[in-house]
């Protein structure tokens, strides 16, 4: 998964994109980059790690221009190396072009083989680079037409930002898997994966980029076009609500925090239990636990405290104190848990290992009963559209019943939301979600890993 942000028509384009990436850090912590256009050329800086560590004042000074795009990466396809960081920039027959992509293409391997057979030389192992080669291949047509034609060739999920020396283009695939929104501040346009990025620099939300829409900003203003592909249904990713997006964002027209509180309430209504307190697995389980506690009339407590400074890579100091795992990230508050019947709310169980460690930790802290409540259905199928999930064999719910999973994690009870309960909210006319990770009902053909 990744976060993307773009700014058109601001003397501070790079600085605004930097702030936007800061707000979207949760969508990817592996690498980040910014590309800027000043009317003549594109400049770019990419680095590994967190936004705050990559962009120094010196780096920002070297990114002049009135338009810019940026990207935070969370690897789903391609290795964790700098050449896979985005934005990806090329200089081809028609000038400069940069791309920032959120999503995953399902036919990238096949397209890459075809392009390589035709002489294309790839610089990364990312699926996103396929777009660049498809676009560069027909220089006689307009950029808009080449982008539209490339989108006809690719399959899968893509929310995209392109940057030329003097223009910015936003594209969302016809299924609408990943969010993409437009904001405005004065004469400056902003496009971002989530509304929390608009809030940070005081841009007002204008509207979403519609599924299948291509929007171009240049000197003449903003123009919208539609891709010719019209799928029978849309496929907004429901996991954005469950786990991925920030709770202060509005995604697909709904506030994520309120969605998660709703999931918690639904859990309490449909899967109640006798208990003394409700605790979340922070941070992902917090809004759903608040909802559960409110609906059940039980006290909400922070029985687990999260260390917010744990990076993705942690060098374990020595053999004797290895395998910190969850302990490094979460620590129980014994005084709150001791002798209590505890409802623990988390957003999902993937492999089951985190949950098992949490249950063990709560037992050692003195909890009398542990009732796990998961604010989503069991994750049984890998995602091919941009969420990083392991293979089907590694997904515990793919091979274990709820009772077996409960036994594995060592809880007194375990309940998930059902598919029906997941869609407790009113859908808009024609609205359709992708819930393939729970049902295996993939909206497009995929090779199951
Ligand atoms: P597991 O130990 O594999 O069952 O991991 C479950 C935990 O991972 C839950 O606390 C989730 O909040 C979190 N989680 C779910 N999906 C993802 C994802 N795609 N990337 C990272 N963490 C996730």
Give your account of this protein's structure:
The chain contains 17 helices and 23 strands. With 449 residues, the chain is α+β, with helices and mostly antiparallel strands. The chain has two domains: 230 residues, 4-Layer Sandwich (Glutamine Phosphoribosylpyrophosphate, subunit 1, domain 1); 154 residues, Rossmann fold (3-Layer(aba) Sandwich), CATH 3.40.50.2020. Strands 3-2-4-1-10-9-11 form a seven-stranded antiparallel sheet. It has a six-stranded antiparallel sheet with strand order 5-6-7-8-12-13, covered by helices on one side. A four-stranded parallel sheet has the order 17-20-21-22, sandwiched between helices. Strand 2 and strand 3 form a beta hairpin. Helix 9 crosses helix 10. The model has no long low-confidence stretch (mean pLDDT 94). The site of adenosine monophosphate has 16 residues, from helix 13.
- Estimate nothing, just give the exact number of structural domains: 2
Q: Share of helix among residues?
A: 25-40%
Strand order of the largest sheet: 3-2-4-1-10-9-11
CATH homologous superfamily heading of the largest domain: Aminohydrolase, N-terminal nucleophile (Ntn) domain
Give the terminus-to-terminus CA distance: 18 Å
Mean pLDDT, as a whole number? 94
Number of strands: 23
Strand content: 15-25%
The low-confidence runs, each spanning 5 or more residues with pLDDT under 50, are none
Largest sheet: 7 strands, antiparallel
């Amino acid at each position: 998964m990744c976060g993307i942000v773009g700014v058109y028509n601001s003397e501070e384009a790079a600085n605004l994109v930097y702030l936007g990436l800061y707000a979207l850090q949760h969508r990817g912590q592996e690498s980040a980059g910014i590309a800027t256009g000043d009317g003549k050329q594109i400049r770019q800086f990419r680095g590994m790690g967190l936004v705050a560590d990559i962009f120094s004042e010196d780096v920002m000074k070297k990114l002049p221009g009135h338009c810019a795009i940026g990207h935070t990466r969370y690897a789903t396809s391609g290795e964790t190396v700098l050449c896979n960081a985005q934005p990806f920039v090329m200089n081809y027959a028609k000038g400069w072009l940069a791309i920032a992509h959120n999503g995953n293409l399902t036919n990238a391997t096949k397209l890459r083989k075809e392009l390589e057979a035709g002489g294309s030389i790839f610089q990364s192992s990312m699926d996103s680079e396929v777009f660049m080669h498809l676009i560069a291949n027909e220089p006689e047509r307009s950029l808009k037409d080449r982008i539209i034609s490339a989108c006809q060739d690719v399959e899968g999920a893509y929310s995209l930002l392109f940057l030329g020396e003097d223009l910015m283009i936003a594209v969302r695939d016809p299924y609408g898997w990943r969010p993409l929104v437009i904001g405005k501040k004065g004469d400056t346009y902003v496009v971002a994966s989530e509304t929390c990025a608009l809030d940070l620099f005081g841009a007002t939300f204008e509207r979403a980029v519609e599924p299948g829409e291509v929007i171009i900003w240049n000197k003449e203003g903003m123009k919208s076009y539609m891709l010719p592909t019209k799928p029978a249904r849309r496929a907004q990713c429901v996991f954005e609500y469950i786990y991925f997006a920030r709770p202060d964002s509005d995604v697909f027209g709904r506030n994520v925090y309120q969605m998660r509180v709703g999931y918690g309430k639904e859990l309490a209504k449909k899967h109640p239990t006798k208990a003394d307190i409700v605790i979340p697995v922070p941070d992902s389980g917090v809004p759903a636990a608040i909802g559960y506690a409110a609906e059940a009339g039980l006290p909400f407590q922070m029985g687990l405290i999260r260390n917010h400074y744990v990076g993705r890579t942690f060098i374990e100091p020595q053999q004797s104190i290895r395998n910190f795992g969850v302990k490094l990230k979460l620590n129980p508050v014994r005084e709150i848990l001791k002798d209590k019947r505890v409802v623990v709310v988390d957003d999902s169980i993937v492999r089951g290992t985190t949950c098992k460690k949490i249950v063990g930790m709560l037992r050692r802290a003195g909890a009398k009963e542990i009732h796990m409540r998961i604010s989503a259905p069991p994750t049984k199928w890998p995602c091919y559209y941009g969420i990083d999930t392991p293979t089907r064999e590694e997904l515990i719910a793919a091979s274990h019943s709820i009772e077996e999973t409960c036994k594995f994690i060592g809880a007194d009870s375990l309940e998930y939301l059902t598919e029906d309960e997941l869609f407790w909210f009113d859908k808009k006319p024609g609205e359709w979600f992708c819930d393939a990770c729970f049902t295996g009902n993939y909206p497009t053909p995929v090779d199951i890993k």
